[in-house]
């Protein structure tokens, strides 16, 4: 079988290449400089988070997918099933962080500007006000035991907004197949510790200054058609 | 009912009684915050002890007080609803209380390999201390999210095992016969300020300050029927 040349494509912001039918993923660029979210999130954290943590998830995801391809080709069900944990964890890490970089934006590019349009209206309808939603997200995030994420999601079927948490690197879809992430906040300690130490609530208080509501509104409008 | 206050230290978990409700307090570290350097920085030790461990204790006490009220009112939804906070915060208190004793400055024997019965048991079961260390490090590195990696003694079967627990689950949640000989905290707060994302380096270095003497004491206490073949 001739070696098909490597095709480079960006799909859904998850850059990947195809090699003999096996997709490999690569680190998406941040839409802003590492220091652009200061003082809300330090440049040191952004660089480690992107170049080390997210990259490691991608590297391990690619490795697991390659092993999966081999196992499937050999009909080795034990290996196929055993690989699911690594795929969920690392694939989830890639999915979640790819969304996260788009959920943030520098203040001078609209970071922190409250949502307008249909998402702003939906938030007021479902939660009473943006402040109430922010408080709810912060309290869920502060109470999260261990590592995980807190999400503002859209239930496409029920057509309503929800606040959900997921453990470790579980993507939002693991909480319900109809849930679409509008924005996620990483509450793993690596997301804030170098700057905020143990004081997760301060990280949560400050991150709203760089939340990209414009992107969340775009996703909401697209998924609400 | 008269107010009773009794101060006692039991099993290193300092607590006192008020009207039948126990409240816990932060145990002292057996060494200075900087005594484990350069393996674990003083900054980490201080935050870890004074902030993280203290918070588990504060929240554990609060949950126990709420449980006390809920029990007196036979309020089952609240009783059951509190179990998550009790497990997480009580587990955090248990685990960290053990952890401080699992570490010792090099000047006080930290890192000195286990001798006597525990050393022999390790060689017997794992082949060598190096093999055990590799296994613990591999499990610690592979742990997804937050948790602990343990060298455990199964009291019933009288055998050693390497186990992991998630979040602040104590070892006993893996099986009632398990006794922790030592645990290594692999939550990011345990190493991030010093080692950043490189958990493997933290795991490589922590062995220099592991208190094998304490682990041996626990092992010998929990293994009354030791005999060498």
Strand arrangement, largest sheet of chain A?
A: 1-2-3
Secondary structure category of chain A:
alpha+beta
Unreliable spans of chain A are 1-12
Number of helices of chain B: 8
Distance between the termini of chain B: 58 Å
How helix-rich are the residues of chain B, as a percent range? 40-55%
Strand line-up of the largest beta sheet of chain B: 1-2-3
Shape of chain A: globular
Largest sheet of chain B: 3 strands, antiparallel
The secondary-structure element order of chain A is EEEHHHHHEEEHHH
Helical content of chain A, roughly? 40-55%
Q: What pair of chains forms the biggest interface? A: A-B, 20 and 20 residues
Kindly state the number of beta strands of chain B: 6
Protein model, in words:
Chain A is α+β, with helices and mostly antiparallel strands. Chain A contains eight helices and six strands; from the N terminus they run βββαααααβββααα. Chain A is 47% helix and 17% strand. A three-stranded antiparallel sheet of chain A has the order 1-2-3. In chain A, strands 5-4-6 form a three-stranded antiparallel sheet. Chain B is an alpha+beta fold and 229 residues long. Chain B has eight helices and six strands. Chain B has a three-stranded antiparallel sheet with strand order 1-2-3. Chain B has a three-stranded antiparallel sheet with strand order 5-4-6. In chain B, a hairpin with a 2-residue loop joins strand 1 and strand 2. Classes of the chains: A alpha+beta (225), B alpha+beta (229). Chains A and B meet through helix 1 of A and helix 1 of B.
Q: Secondary-structure map with pairings?
A:
The complex is a heterodimer of chains A (225) and B (229).
Chain A (H helix, E strand, L loop, with lengths): L6 E5 L2 E6 L2 E4 L17 H32 L2 H6 L1 H20 L13 H11 L2 H14 L4 E8 L4 E8 L11 E8 L6 H4 L3 H8 L5 H11 L2
Helix pairs in contact in A: 1-3, 4-8, 5-7
Chain B lengths: L4 E6 L2 E6 L2 E4 L17 H31 L3 H6 L1 H20 L13 H11 L2 H14 L4 E8 L4 E8 L11 E8 L6 H4 L3 H8 L5 H11 L7
Antiparallel strand pairs in B: 1-2, 2-3, 4-5, 4-6
């Amino acid at each position: 079988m001739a070696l098909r040349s490597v095709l480079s494509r960006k799909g859904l912001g998850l850059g990947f290449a195809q090699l003999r039918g096996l997709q490999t993923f690569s680190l998406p660029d941040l839409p802003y400089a590492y220091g652009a979210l200061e003082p809300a999130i330090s440049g040191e954290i952004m660089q480690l988070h992107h170049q080390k943590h997210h990259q490691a998830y991608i590297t391990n995801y690619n490795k697991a997918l390659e092993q999966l391809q081999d196992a499937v080709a050999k009909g080795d069900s034990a290996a196929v099933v055993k690989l699911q944990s690594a795929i969920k964890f690392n694939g989830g890490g890639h999915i979640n962080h790819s969304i996260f970089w788009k959920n943030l934006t520098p203040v001078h590019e609209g970071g922190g500007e409250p949502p307008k349009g249909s998402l702003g209206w939906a938030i007021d309808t479902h939660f009473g006000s943006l402040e109430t939603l922010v408080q709810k997200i912060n309290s869920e995030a502060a109470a999260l035991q261990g590592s995980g994420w807190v999400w503002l999601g859209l239930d496409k079927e029920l057509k309503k907004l929800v606040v959900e948490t997921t453990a470790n690197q579980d993507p939002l879809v693991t909480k319900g197949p109809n849930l679409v992430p509008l924005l996620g906040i990483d509450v793993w300690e690596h997301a804030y510790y170098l700057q905020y130490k143990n004081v997760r609530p301060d990280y949560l208080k400050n991150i709203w200054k760089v939340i990209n509501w414009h992107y969340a509104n775009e996703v909401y409008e697209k998924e609400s058609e | 009912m008269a107010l009773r206050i009794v101060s006692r230290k039991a099993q290193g978990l300092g607590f006192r009684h008020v009207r039948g409700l126990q409240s816990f307090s932060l145990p002292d570290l057996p060494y200075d915050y900087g005594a484990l350097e350069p393996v674990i920085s003083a900054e980490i030790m201080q935050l870890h002890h004074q902030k993280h461990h203290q918070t588990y204790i504060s929240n554990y006490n609060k949950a126990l007080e709420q449980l006390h009220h809920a029990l007196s009112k036979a309020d089952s939804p609240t009783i059951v609803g509190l179990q998550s906070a009790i497990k997480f915060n009580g587990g955090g208190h248990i685990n960290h209380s053990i952890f401080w004793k699992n570490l010792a400055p090099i000047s006080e024997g930290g890192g000195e390999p286990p001798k006597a019965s525990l050393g022999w048991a390790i060689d017997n079961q794992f082949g060598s201390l190096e093999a055990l260390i590799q296994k613990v490090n591999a499990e610690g590195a592979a742990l997804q999210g937050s948790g602990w990696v343990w060298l455990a003694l199964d009291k019933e079967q009288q055998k050693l095992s390497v186990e992991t627990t998630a979040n602040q689950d104590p070892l006993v949640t893996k099986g009632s016969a398990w006794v922790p000989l030592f645990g290594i905290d692999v939550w990011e707060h345990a190493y991030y300020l010093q080692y950043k994302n490189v958990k493997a380096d933290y795991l490589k270095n922590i062995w220099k300050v592991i208190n094998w003497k304490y682990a041996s004491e626990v092992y010998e206490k929990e293994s009354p029927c030791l005999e060498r073949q």
